[in-house]
From TrEMBL:
Pfam families: Peptidase_M90, SEC-C. GO terms for molecular function: aminopeptidase activity; metallopeptidase activity. This is Peptidase. One of its GO terms (cellular component) is cytosol. It comes from the Bacteria.
Length: 292
């Protein structure tokens, strides 16, 4: 018992040190948000376009903060600003209404050129994984298929977004385990109805009486990630098809997604167009000046 007590104290001390170290080394943005990054958000991220001017400023700050504290590394693939901004947007969307949120359990996102298997091979026949939260020696890392990342923001009607899915797993993991019960976001009074509803909805998937992605029936953790994709991509449809589920997700994420107008620009902004930030200047003289 004595040794167990000493070990427990050691683990607690390590976790406390880790938390203090993370906070001490956390980098906050000091420079203005890059104009070309804003253009990427406008063109690619419907969630961003649904925000008020004040909310957009807050979203941009969190995107910039995320990228200052988490590396985006390409593995046999190039990484550009679009990739970086979309990874960051995926991270911020689920926690947008938690102003002090920090992903202290993540320091690097690895982008792969396509899907992979559990040995991280991309050319094998069983290379079907699109995203993964690292464990063991990969702790603190996330792996994403670059095509899946881009597809998540190019098709926003299919109720799927791989990167958001993986960040929801990471949120779930903040309390120590990925189990579909994100206690760090959920008040205790929601736990029992949430777990009961998950069981009911998984049963509906098995009975083929649901429009929820069948992968959600794998287990409670996957259900939480899958239904979160649905919540952020097709909130009005979710609210109509699964009102109880929608209501609990609204409580978990502290966001009324069904009231947002998820619109994305369908055309590129020309150099001489009015800048979408509302400055009154032409795009080339404002947010687009870093392009030209």
């Amino acid at each position: 018992m004595k040794y167990i007590a000493i070990l427990s104290i050691g683990i607690l001390a390590y976790l406390l040190f880790k938390k203090l170290w993370s906070n001490k080394n956390w980098i906050s943005p000091k420079k203005p948000f890059p104009g070309n990054w804003r253009n990427i958000l406008i063109q690619k991220v419907s969630f961003y376009n649904s925000l008020t001017a004040e909310e957009k400023t807050r979203f941009e700050y969190k995107v910039q903060e995320f990228l200052l504290n988490c590396r985006i590394t390409g593995i046999h693939t190039e990484v550009d600003d679009t990739d970086r901004v979309l990874v960051a947007a995926s991270a911020i969307i689920p926690v947008f209404e938690f102003p002090n949120w920090k992903y202290t359990n993540l320091f690097e996102v690895l982008l792969y050129p396509n899907s992979f298997n559990d040995k991280f091979e991309t050319q094998a026949e069983d290379a079907r994984i699109l995203g993964m939260v690292g464990t063991g020696y990969m702790e603190g890392k996330m792996i994403l298929s670059k095509p899946a990342l881009l597809h998540g923001f190019s098709n926003e009607s299919d109720k799927k977004n791989t990167a958001i899915h993986e960040f929801v797993h990471l949120i779930d993991k903040m309390d120590g385990k990925i189990d579909g019960l994100p206690s760090i976001l959920m008040e205790k009074q929601y736990s029992i109805p949430w777990l009961d509803l998950i069981s009911k909805k998984i049963e509906e998937i098995y009975e083929e009486k649901s429009d929820i992605n069948p992968y959600g029936a794998t287990n409670k953790a996957e259900f939480f990630a899958v239904i979160s994709e649905y919540f952020f991509e097709r909130p009005k449809l979710l609210a109509n098809a699964h009102p109880e589920l929608y209501q609990l997700l609204e409580e978990i994420f502290n966001q009324n997604m069904s009231q947002r107008k998820l619109l994305r620009a369908k055309h590129s902004i020309s150099r001489n167009s009015p800048c979408p930030c509302g400055s009154g200047l032409k795009f080339k003289k404002c947010c687009g000046k870093q392009h030209y």
